[in-house]
Structure formats: C-alpha cells, structure tokens
Protein: Polymerase
Organism: Brevundimonas diminuta
Amino acid sequence: MRGAIAPSRHDPDAPTLWEQAAAGLILALLSGALLGPIFAPNQEETPVLRLVWPPIYLVILGLVGFRARRMAAAWPAFIPLLLMVVLALASGLWSQAPDVTERRVLALGLTGVFAVYLGAVFRGIALPRMLTATFLALGLCSLIAVFVFPGFGVHHAANAGLWRGVWYEKNQLGMVMTLGLIAASALLAAQTDQRDRRLALAALAVCTLALLGSQSKTALIMAMLGGGLVLLCRLIRRMGPVFGVVAVWCMGAALVGGLWAWSEFSVEILALFGKDPSLTGRTEIWDAIARMTERRPWLGYGYSAFWLPDSEPMEWIRHETGWRVPSAHQGWLDLRAELGWAGVGLVGAVVAVTSAAVLIRLTGLGRREGYWSLAWLAAFLLLSLSESVLMRHQDLPWTLFMALMARNLIPDRAP
C-alpha cells in the first residue's frame, strides 16, 4: 500500500507521502467513520466529537501553508467558496440559532479550503490514486467490522443483517464504497503503472463486496453511473470520434426512453428497487417542507438552523409527518429551507460553472485523471436528489465536489 501511493519520482511537485496520509485521514473523518458510531451511537452532537475537529483544522491550515504558492494560484476556486461562506455567515442575522450557524459556517469554510487544497495539490491522477487508497483502507476496516465484530458492523434492528461497516448505517457505507469504485475506475482508465493497477483492482474487489453487502440502492445506481461514464469515455478515446457521436445519440435516446418509461411505469420501476411510490415516506417530507419554506422563500431559516432539535420548523414537520424527520433527504430542498432561493441560485450557478469547466477540459485534465471529475460530478448530482449533501459542513461528498470544482477551475500552468 505504501508503494502504491508514493509520490512520483518524475514530478517534484507531487504530494508527499505525509500529505497523502494527512489528506486521507481527514477524508476518513469527513466520512463519519468509526468515531461517530463509537462516541455518539445515537447520532447526537457531543462535545467529544467537537474536540476532534480543532486539531484537524490546524492540520488543514498546515497543509495550506506548506503549499502556499499553489494555493495562491488557485484563486479562481476561492471565489465561489467565498460567496457561499459569505451567504451562510450573513444568514446568522436571521437564523433561528445564530451560534450554531456561526460555528458551522467556520467548519464550512475550513473544509472548503481543504477541498481547494485537494484540487490544487493533487493534480491529474494523484487525487484518484489517493482516494482509491483511502477508500480501500476504509473498505477493509468495514469488512473486518462485519466479519470480526458483527455486533458493530452489521445492522441488528432496522435493516437487520445488512452491512454498515464502520459507519452509522448502510447508506453511508454504500456511498463511501461508491466513491472508492469511481476513483478506482478512474485510476484504471488513466493507464498508469502496475502498482496503480494492482491498487485499483484491489479497491474494486473490496468496495464492490462492501457495497453489495450494504444493499444501498442509491449507492449502487451511483456506482453504475460513475463507472459507466468512465468506461464510456475510455471507449470513445480508444474507438474514435465516430463511436463518440453514436454513443451520445444512443445515450440521448436512452434518456428519452427512460423518461417515457418513468412517466408511464414509475410505480413498477420503484418496485424493482424495493421502493414504494412515497419513496419510503420522502414525498410526505418534501410536501411538508415545501409548505414550511413558503414562509421564508428567499432567505430561508438560516444555515444549519432548520433541523435543530425542538426548533419550530422541525416540530411542525414532525407534526405533519408523524415522526421526527432528521433531514429533507433531498439536497436542493434542504438548501432552500436553510438559505432560500438565494442559496439555491448560488449553488446552482456553482454547479453550472463547474459542469461547464469539466466538459471543456474533458480531453485534457479529464484524460489525465481517468475522467474522475465527470464521473463524480454525475454521481454527486444524482446523490443530491436523494440526500442532503449540498453546501454541507464537514461532509465528504460536498468536499469532493468542491475539490473537483477547484481542479477544473485552476489553470494547468499554475505553479
């Protein structure tokens, strides 16, 4: 494993081994692995978990200082980050819990800086390589938890028998393993050396096994989408532009056919994935939140202030749905509840600019990184439709989205 992620001898600016280890540790903590289930088994916010992050923030600042020149050259990526932090901080003026908003805005800003660091320092295939190694390690830890400590690694009440690994629940395991699968697919597509190939194949095997054990439907679809895009881009590169044109037309036809099938047979399609028409109660939650957000349509209830225990919005949602809802399970709706249409518009613009940059640089940066940016962008946007992952503090999917934004906005010739 050590040799698999060692910095290249041909690139003096490649991340050092200690940088890779530090970045991997921070990503593992952002995923919520191990510490949360041990110190806060009921998923409540505890002082112990808060104490973990100040040292991590110091490590982030140390990493940024070590790469000061590279970070200065990454100034285009700081513009959208600054705009989002300013909006979130300003929401403290009308937030239901200004102290919570201010604390979490700090976390949003610092993890955003870490994301820019990833995009600026881990160039080309270096980021997928580090992600592959990190998620392979987390996958192995999860398999140990499942087979050696099943009381910890396997669900026993709800979702009994399904794997959760070193996380709270199966969907977290599935999401992280999907990240590993996408990164490993990109590492293979980039066609580097044999060490990278062995690392990628090991990660594909471990992450696939853990993903199947979790039985997370959303994660499985994300993995198929991300991995499929990597494979498609690789085939287009090998077969030539004619194949690319045919593939795009086929994808368009498949999309139109899929939309028609969904409009006519949505109930049957959901049943194939073990879902009811309400998406396990999600549609009831969405209707209730939509009515609640109409009271503050433009600016929302404040960053990270909507779902606080015993808050007015949460109590109203609980009254409407009949149970204590933890989140909207829909990224854009959660964003609208917290920051209103202003937040939705800002994040939508960031996503649009990032998407354009990824497509423009697909034949350059995209080829060198094994098309990781395109694959994770597509998977992330799909995830945002079913989970609250937009503009989140201390959140792995959002951090990696910001990292891909940074690496695609930073000029290639940055020092």
About this structure: Residues 241-272 form the longest helix (32 residues). The two ends are 29 Å apart (CA to CA). DSSP finds 18 helices and no strands in the chain. The chain has two domains: 3-238+278-409, 240-275.
